[in-house]
């Protein structure tokens, strides 16, 4: 690599590099006219994982997560593994390998995608909502130095609900009287509801009621 003996700062930088200590780039020149130039660069391994998953789910739904992993350093990575603190098992191997040579080494320009599937846990008073989980990707560089990265994804668990209360405008009536009804519709859930068909469905339910309900006693006429 070199035809000069490293001295002074160059020697110190080389020593730091040999010990695995941070040396971003050392450029050392010696000799007349700068004809002998030694460039010492050290490995700067890095890994990045980006997690994707559903934004909104219901209890009982299935959540599909994907984890895109790439090298962000200047050295290939091997023995890449992905785990998740809530979802298990994550695929042991990438389900897709984009870019590069498709071999077992994660190199610059390559993106490996892992997946995991889990059911939304059953509802509970102390449930985590939104449900947040953390993925961890690990690997090793050419010198077997470990690298890791994490990413967090949160999914909102929604609990849609609707409540309707039917209220008659009188408590008693005689045969032939007309009874007016009011329908109080509320949303006790934690997510908005599409009410565009609400009126239609309420009227539909009224239409299906037999005529006998015209006369009834008490508020709960049905
Ligand atoms: Ca590769």
Describe this entry's structure for a reader.
With 222 residues, the chain is mainly β. The chain is 9% helix and 37% strand. It is built from two helices and twelve strands; from the N terminus they run H-E-E-E-E-E-E-E-E-E-E-E-E-H. The protein has helices at 8-18, 198-207, and strands at residues 25-30, 36-41, 47-52, 56-57, 62-71, 78-84, 96-98, 111-119, 131-140, 146-157, 163-168, 181-186. A four-stranded antiparallel sheet has the order 3-5-8-7, with no helix packed on it. The protein has a four-stranded mixed sheet with strand order 4-10-9-6, with no helix packed on it. A hairpin with a 5-residue loop joins strand 1 (25-30) and strand 2 (36-41). The longest helix has 11 residues, at 8-18. The chain is rod-shaped. The model is unreliable at 32-40 and 210-222 (pLDDT under 50). Bound molecules: calcium ion. Calcium ion is lined by residues 100-101, 103, 105, 107, 110.
Task: Please tag this protein with its features.
222 residues, mainly beta, four-stranded antiparallel sheet, four-stranded mixed sheet, 2 helices, 9% helix, rod-shaped, binds calcium ion
Portion in strands = 35-45%
Order of helices and strands: HEEEEEEEEEEEEH
Number of helices: 2
Overall SS class: mainly beta
Bound ligands, each once: calcium ion
Distance between the termini: 93 Å
Radius of gyration: 33 Å
Q: What's the SSE blueprint?
A:
Elements: H1 8-18, E1 25-30, E2 36-41, E3 47-52, E4 56-57, E5 62-71, E6 78-84, E7 96-98, E8 111-119, E9 131-140, E10 146-157, E11 163-168, E12 181-186, H2 198-207
This protein binds calcium ion.
Calcium ion (CA) binds at residues 100-101, 103, 105, 107, 110.
């Amino acid at each position: 690599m070199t035809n000069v003996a490293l001295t002074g700062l160059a020697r110190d930088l080389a020593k730091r590099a040999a010990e695995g200590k941070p040396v971003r780039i050392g450029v050392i020149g010696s000799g007349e006219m700068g004809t002998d130039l030694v460039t010492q660069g050290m490995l700067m391994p890095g890994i990045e994982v980006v997690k994707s998953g559903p934004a909104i789910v219901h209890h009982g739904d299935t959540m599909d997560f994907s984890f895109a992993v790439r090298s962000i350093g200047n050295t290939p990575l091997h023995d890449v593994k992905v785990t998740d603190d809530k979802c298990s098992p994550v695929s042991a191997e990438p389900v897709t390998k984009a870019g590069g040579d498709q071999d077992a080494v994660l190199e610059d320009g390559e993106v490996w995608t892992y997946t995991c599937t889990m059911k939304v846990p059953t509802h509970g008073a102390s449930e985590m909502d939104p449900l947040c989980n953390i993925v961890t990707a690990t690997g090793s560089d050419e010198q077997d130095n470990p690298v890791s990265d994490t990413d967090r994804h949160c999914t909102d668990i929604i609990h849609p609900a609707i409540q309707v209360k039917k209220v008659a405008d009188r408590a008693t009536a005689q045969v032939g009287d007309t009874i007016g009804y009011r329908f109080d519709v509320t949303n006790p859930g934690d997510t908005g509801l599409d009410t565009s068909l609400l009126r239609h469905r309420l009227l539909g339910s009224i239409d299906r009621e037999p005529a006998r309900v015209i006369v009834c006693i008490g508020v709960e006429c049905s």
